[in-house]
UniProtKB/TrEMBL annotation:
Substrate binds at residue 344. Its EC number is 1.4.3.10. This is Putrescine oxidase. Keywords: Oxidoreductase. The keyword Zinc does not apply. Gene3D superfamilies: FAD/NAD(P)-binding domain. GO terms for molecular function: putrescine oxidase activity. Belongs to the flavin monoamine oxidase family. It is an enzyme of class 1 (oxidoreductase). Its cofactor is FAD. It comes from Agromyces terreus.
Amino acid sequence: MERIDCDVVIVGAGASGLTAANKLKDAGKSVVVLEARDRIGGRLWTDDIDGAMLEIGGQWVSPDQDALIETIDELGLETYSRYREGENVYIGETGERRLFEGDIFPVPAKTEGEIVGLIEKLDALVAEIDPDAPWAHPRAKELDEVSFAEWLGTQTDDEEAKLNIGMFIAGAMLTKPAHAFSALQALLMAASAGSFSNLVDADFILDKRVVGGLQLVPLGLAERLGGAVRLGQPVRKLRWNPEQPDAGVTAVTDDLEVHAKRVILALAPVLISRISYEPPLPRRQHQLHQHLSMGFVIKVHAVYETPFWRADGLSGTAFSPYELVHEAYDNTNHGDPRGTLVGFVSDEEADGVFTLDAEERKAKILESLSHYYGEQAKNPVVYYESDWGSEEWTRGAYAASFDMGGLARYGADLRTPVGPIHFSCSDMAGKGYQHVDGAIRVGREVAAAILAEG
C-alpha cells in the first residue's frame, strides 16, 4: 500500500474541499485531496448527454454570492444571464394556465393578499435569524418543534397560499415535504439567501450561469493543485488518537495511506458515517448525524431543436404547486441555437414517478411540461433525468437538513472539530447554505481555522 505524508488531507474534491486545499497550499501547507468518485466536482457536474451539454448538478449564480463570484473571477470564467424575457406561466388548482409577470402568481385577490402577508411575516422573522447561528434565536426551540406546514397553518387558512409559499422552501430548496422539516429550518434556508423575498424572486436567486458549466469552478481549483488530487479513492477508515490530538490522523483507502496532521471531511454529512473511525467519533457526532438527511429531487433536462416557447412570448419560467413538475425554466446554453428547458420534480412526487418504468416516467414528466408550454414540449431531441438519490457518493439532493427539533438541538455542533478532524461542505454553511457559495465560504473558514492552529 502506497504511503503519503502531508500536512492536511482533504476528503472530497468538491468546491468546499478544493477551496480549503488551495487556501492551505497557498499558505505553504502540503495537501492531498482524496475523492471517491472518478471525477472532480461533487454535486457540480457538467456532462455531454447525446450531444447536449447539460448541468446535471448545481448551476446558478445569484448576485449576493460573493464568495462564488470572486472564485469565478479568479479562475477567469465568464458568466451569462438566464433567459427571462416574456411572460411566465402559472397553473392553478383547476388546471387553468395563466400568464403573468413579476414575482406574485396570478391567483385570486384574497390568495394574493395572503401570499404577500406571509412573505412579509417570513421576511420579518428571517431578519431576526443569524444564518450562522439560527439556534441562538430566542425562540429557536419553539420554532424547531413545529413543522413548516403546521406553522403556515397557524398564519392562514388559504390552501393555495400555503401551497405556494411551501413550494419555495419545500419543493424548490429543501426538497422535502413541508411537514417533514421545522419552521426554524425554513427560516435558515431563507436567511441564507438574505430574505424570503430573495427566495421567491427567480430573477435574483437564478440570475446567471457560467459559460461552459459551473463544474469549471472545481475543475479550475483542482488544476491549481496539480497531482495532489487523487480520484477513485474512497476513504474507508480514519485512525486518530483522542489522547494525542497533535499526533495527527491517517486516512486509509483501498490502496493508499495518507498520514497528516489534520483532516478535512469535505463531503455531505450523510456520508460521514460511511467512514470507519478508530476510535469511533464521540457520541455527540453519532447522534447528530442520525438527525440529518438528504432531500430528493429529479432535475429534468429537455432539449429541443429551437426554444419554441420564446416565439410564443414566454420566458420559460413556470410554476405550479399542483403540477408534477412544480417549477421549470429556460435553461438554454450560451450560444446554443437549440432550446433547453429544465424542470424539477421534488420529494413525494419524485417518490411516485420512480415507481414507474423509465418510459412511463418520461411520458408523465413531459405531459406536465406540456401543460406549461404546449404540445411541442412532449418531443425533445434529448431527455435526461438527474437522479442524485441513486448516486453512491451523494445519496440525495440538493443537500442535507435536520429533522424536527434537530437544528436547535445539534446545529451548533455541526462544524465543531473533533481532535484533528474538521468538517466542511455547503450543507454546513450559514450564508449560502446548500449553494456553491456556501461551500466556498466554509472551505475558506475551515482552512483559516487550521492555519490559526499552526
